[in-house]
Write a structure and sequence with these properties.
Two copies of one chain form a homodimer. Chain A has two domains: about 100 residues, OB fold (Dihydrolipoamide Acetyltransferase, E2P), CATH 2.40.50.140; about 300 residues, BirA Bifunctional Protein, domain 2 (2-Layer Sandwich), CATH 3.30.930.10. In chain A, about 30% of the residues lie in helices and about 25% in strands. Chain A has 13 helices and 18 strands. In chain A, the strands form four sheets. The first copy, chain A, has an eight-stranded mixed β-sheet with strand order 6-10-11-18-17-16-13-12. In chain A, strands 1-2-3-5-4 form a five-stranded mixed β-barrel. Chain A has a three-stranded antiparallel β-sheet with strand order 7-9-8, with no helix packed on it. In chain A, helix 4 crosses helix 6 and helix 4 crosses helix 13. The longest helix of chain A has 23 residues. Chains A and B meet through strand 1, helix 4, strand 6, strand 7 and strand 8 of A and strand 1, helix 4, strand 6, strand 7 and strand 8 of B.
């Protein structure tokens, strides 16, 4: 196996700049068919797929022989002339003149036919090579980039929070534990508490890292390991927080539409569903949401948190993202600021995506008052001494502040219109899935 | 505590755009001094520090009284006129007209004097508020942004690799283990093997995530939890790999110089040390490095890996970053491609930063041949069945490919000229340090 002449390398996405030139490209054989008179090779290189066409009169007999013996996913270098072809996806095809086989692949397990999901997940390292999975990964990359660009351009500083944490703050039942040189350590479920500290240092911050929930949930929305971006803003109140979320989601969707038309087409996503995503989003109070659910006989009581079926029903009543807001304090986390008008509810909102995709963001204004926060920690039976550093943030220059967590895989699942969150991450970790 | 009128908010970094206007700004009192005749308040808001000046004739008696009672880190809103002042860091100061104290802070543990390192680390959540730590975090953010921007603009796709992995590929001694619903799982030490799979799907990829080494090392270069960016490129050989590393490091250093002059000054870093970082970097073979070390009586034998003192000595012989290359196969990982001219060494290089900072990058060309890779796995006594998916990458369209891992904290420690890696991450995890 040798690398081809470096000077001649052209990527498939750049072929349009080389019309009627002889180029060399390197990649893998995705698909091929051949009669005795003409052969079509579909070649992928990570930047796209292009068709190379060969006839026995264009190439020598040995090359024609080689073409007939090719197997799916063989690695190769093809040389030939780039010709415009309006019927082709990229608008070009290659008239093949020369073929170098780098490696003739063994019989490929993921032949181009239907496969069961477990089989595909067992071969995730190969499944990722298909055009659909490549498109999803490109959409994921785009979304991650746009989220960070938007925040940084808005004055945010990325400040990373730790994965290994010393405290099982909210019980150990959904935590992964490990031994840290003789002390128990837990994998983070959220960087928020740490981000509240860094917001008091840098004003507007975000963390962006994997998070872990050892929940025995087996739904199309749950991953054990997932990525979350968590902005936290000093001096932002509840309304500032929602307005930022609207701008951020609108921006990301807009940028996906501008830059990823091809990827959306590949995954079969109708852009019209995304084009109508415009701020301001809809809003419904928790109380009103419960009335809406009562009409549909869900039997949920005031004070219970919303589950996936409730979210689907609520989101279904709106044609754009909707904030469900002002939840009962007793079904939410200890650090949320009560509504001053109505202390039994908190200044918290979940953002639900349309089309039944459910929660993509959860956020709140945080408690700024030391005494109230301490009382809540005690009411929730949390180990007070473990929260000493967190209470410090209310001892030394406490300010109004707010933040939220946006789940990358849930956002991507909605934007790409996927059926299941398992396709939204390169190597999903689920209840029964730790490999490859 | 109420948020001030939203319309009037001005951040400290933007004060220069409001010369001679009355503004309101919100932040924390960093320092203050007062005589009976004039008071100086240094206020920080995360975007910068500004001095507000007040005299008894500018403000009412109650405000003057309030100013006298202020404590370090109290949160406040000040209103006043922005005046040009060339002696001030940002070129402006505020002539204070009105002061609102949001919260009068309790006595601050990190008073403005010298503190011991353990004390500072125990109060990391507050230590981060100091100008030096803020500048370091801004440099970190800038470096992370520039690394990703460079790679994406160069055609790379970010493809995240998992933290939880099923195999203890290289022994369990330096791995963190956890229970994954009845199966052992291990925290990743590197995403490389997974990135080799995604490179075969997307061509040029990188992963960017925390990584973990449960090593009992207690040096100024070691963190238990650290961030690493790992590009992996299909069709890149050894030389392509080194050229990319040079371009990437040169770009990041250049962008830091362009955008972070103030932060470099705050941390006391001489920009001249960075201005001479220009590709191509120096190179020395492992063999020649050993000769250089022999002159200094290090007593290292051929075949042993380099340690921190060796790296410092080697790097000290060069005034710019230096690649140490072609290491003995036996001291490096199993997946590295042998030098075809000399199979006892591998096509691997470590990039050492100058000024004694040591390794910031480790990279190599990867073995592409199935039989050789299998032989290496057996020679290293690795569990063959756990590498079946990794071997698949050599069964189905194997190609020449290369990659590297760049440690964020080590790069930042060098760029910022820090004495110890512990300041380069918001919440360091070290041998004896898991909190806050």
């Amino acid at each position: 196996m040798t690398v081809m002449d470096k000077e001649a390398r052209v990527s498939i996405e750049a072929l349009g700049d080389h019309l009627d030139e002889t180029v060399a490209l390197q990649g893998w054989l995705y698909n091929h068919r051949s009669s005795g008179k003409i052969a079509f090779l579909q070649i992928r290189d990570g930047t796209g797929v292009v068709q190379a066409v060969a006839t026995p009169s264009d190439v020598d007999a040995a090359t024609w022989e080689k073409i007939q013996s090719l197997t799916q996913e063989s690695s190769l270098v093809v040389r030939g002339v780039v010709r415009a072809d309006p019927r082709s996806p990229g608008g070009v095809e290659i008239h093949l003149a020369n073929l170098q086989v780098l490696q003739l692949a063994e019989e490929y397990p993921l032949a181009l036919k239907e496969h069961g999901v477990e089989f595909l997940l067992n071969h995730r390292h190969l499944w990722l090579r298909t055009p659909r999975q490549v498109a999803i990964m490109r959409l994921r990359d785009r979304i991650m980039r746009e989220l960070e660009d938007f925040l940084r351009d808005d004055g945010f500083t990325r400040v990373d929070t730790p994965i290994l944490t010393p405290n099982a703050c909210e019980g150990t039942s959904s935590l992964f534990e490990t031994d840290f040189f003789g002390h128990p350590a837990y994998l983070t479920q959220s960087g928020q508490l740490y981000s509240e500290a860094t917001a008091a240092a840098l004003g507007k911050v975000y963390c962006f890292s994997p998070a872990f929930r050892a929940e025995k949930s087996k739904t199309r929305r749950h991953l054990i390991e997932f990525w979350m971006i968590e902005p936290e803003m000093a001096f932002y109140d509840y309304e500032d927080n929602l307005a930022l979320q609207e701008r951020l989601v609108e921006h990301v969707v807009d940028r996906v539409l501008q830059t990823c038309a091809e990827e959306l087409e590949t995954v079969g996503r109708d852009p019209a569903q995304l084009e109508r995503i415009r701020a301001p989003f809809a809003r419904i109070s928790y109380d009103d949401a419960l009335e809406l659910l009562a009409d549909q006989d869900f039997g949920i009581e005031w004070g219970e948190d919303l589950g996936a079926p409730h979210e689907t029903a609520i989101a279904g009543a709106f044609d754009r993202p909707v904030f469900v807001e002002r939840f009962p304090a007793k079904c939410k986390a200890f650090y949320m600021e009560p509504d001053p008008q109505r202390p039994e509810v908190v200044l918290a909102a979940d953002l639900l995506a349309p089309e039944g995709y459910g929660e993509i963001i959860g956020g709140s204004q945080r408690i700024a008052d030391y005494d109230l926060l301490l009382r809540r920690i005690r009411e929730h039976n949390l180990p007070e001494e473990d929260f000493n550093w967190y209470l410090d943030l209310r001892r030394y220059g406490s300010v109004v502040h707010s933040g939220f967590g946006l789940g990358i895989e849930r956002l991507l699942t909605w934007v790409a219109g996927l059926d299941h969150v398992r396709e939204s991450i390169p190597f999903p970790r689920m209840l029964n899935r730790l490999s490859p």
